[in-house]
Specification:
48% helix, 189 residues, alpha+beta
Length: 189
């Protein structure tokens, strides 16, 4: 009689340990501890942690810049893409595209796409110009500069060929930024 009970207890303990290990990685992601999550993650999860952590890093950088402008009061990520180095031959370093919704101090919402280029050693740089609205649509009567058309083409390339961050990752990043948590990214080099 003792054997079935002890077997059940051992099974419950093992299941509990396995569940808590998985939850540990998720908790680390929710706390912006991407380096620790990467170290604990299974091999097949590591690339997604690199992607989310770098998008989170760029999103927080963008958010801080938005608040410094004194024109906007809030920012949230609506969509995000990560294009790995070498996927498209003309881009030799990773690229990120963030679709943000900014709220002006007088309460109006503005959609904007921001692009980042990775130059190595933990350095992500902004790529200008920014693209307002949808990268595939132009408002009626809107004249597009050569620079902005180039930016829209680059956005199309990133979004069509890159990895889209799942909504759970976007939700985690928006929560990290809202709670002003430190983000510890795993850089792609």
């Amino acid at each position: 009689m003792k054997k079935p009970i002890s077997f059940c207890l051992v099974s419950i303990l093992i299941i509990g340990l396995l569940t808590s290990c998985g939850n540990t990685v998720t908790k680390m992601l929710k706390n912006g501890q991407y380096t620790k999550a990467y170290e604990k993650a299974k091999d097949d999860e590591k690339n997604s942690i690199i992607i989310e952590s770098n998008i989170a890093y760029c999103a927080k950088d963008s958010y801080e810049a938005v608040l410094e402008s004194e024109t906007f009061s809030t920012s949230k990520i609506l969509d995000a893409y990560y294009l790995d180095a070498g996927v498209i031959q003309m881009y030799s370093s990773p690229l990120i595209a963030l679709h943000q919704q900014l709220t002006t101090v007088d309460g109006q919402n503005v959609d904007m796409w921001v692009r980042f280029n990775y130059s190595g050693n933990g350095n992500w740089g902004w790529i200008q110009p920014f693209v307002h609205g949808d990268y595939d649509e132009y408002p009626s009567g809107y004249e597009v500069s050569v620079e902005e058309e180039g930016a829209r083409i680059m956005l199309r390339v990133i979004c069509q060929n890159g990895t889209r961050l799942p909504s759970a990752g976007i939700d985690r990043i928006n929560a990290l930024i809202k709670d002003n948590k430190t983000i510890d990214p795993v850089y792609p080099d």
